[in-house]
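Quick one, T. Sequence first:
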Amino acid sequence: MESNKGPDARQVSDDGPGCCGCILMGLSYFIVVIFFPFSLAMCIKIVQEYERAVIFRLGRVLPGGAKGPGMFFILPCLDDFKKVDLRTVANDVPPQEILTKDSVTVAVDAVIYSSIYDPTMSVINVENADASTRLLAATTLRNVLGTKNMSEILSDRDSIAHQMKALLDQATDPWGIRVERVEIKDVRLPMQLQRAMAAEAEASREARAKVIAAEGEQHASLALKEAADIMASSPAAIQLRYLQTLSTIASEKNSTIIFPLPIDMLAAFGKK
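Structure tokens:
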């Protein structure tokens, strides 16, 4: 990623330490030699694999960039260093009360995953990188969601997260910070609006259930009509259906069935 360094961005000075600085450096080396090996405890520092050290000598950043990982050497009384953690940091954005485009007040919170890619810029260009990123994320969250409708906030969280990531990444680039991911954690609606949405969803489900039941009745009626037409065209089918019904009744109720008339006589009536 290209660094967005404008004309106002602070640059590391390449000027030398000057005459007084050289004298002080000589004295510092002399003290290190005089008190050797005890001075090694003050001169040798170690940073971990995930850390870098930005060294300041007489208030100026040493050329060559941040040191590490491993061991490095500093001069007592002249050098100062700051450790910078390069691991990804998760910053919680506290819930923000936001008025949406359609005049609905919602509370939205998010989480920002960011990491430092330039330790020197993160030290000299911003006082507190993590706190500045959190404050900027809260402001960006309010600005972005203020232009969205409530339905867009509820359904298009991914697009909102991508938009916030692009804005934050552009703003934090001069600080040496890369925004890796933005997630919308929760969207809390007012209680009255929640009840109204629940009632609307329940009414929609009931309407859909009635439509499905009506379609089922229609299909059943068509099937019965087709069966009746087939049985009307074949008297034998009526007799078989009659016998099947009697068999079902006998097997389920376990009762004695008396036929008042022979089936042949019923067939004769059917022909008339």
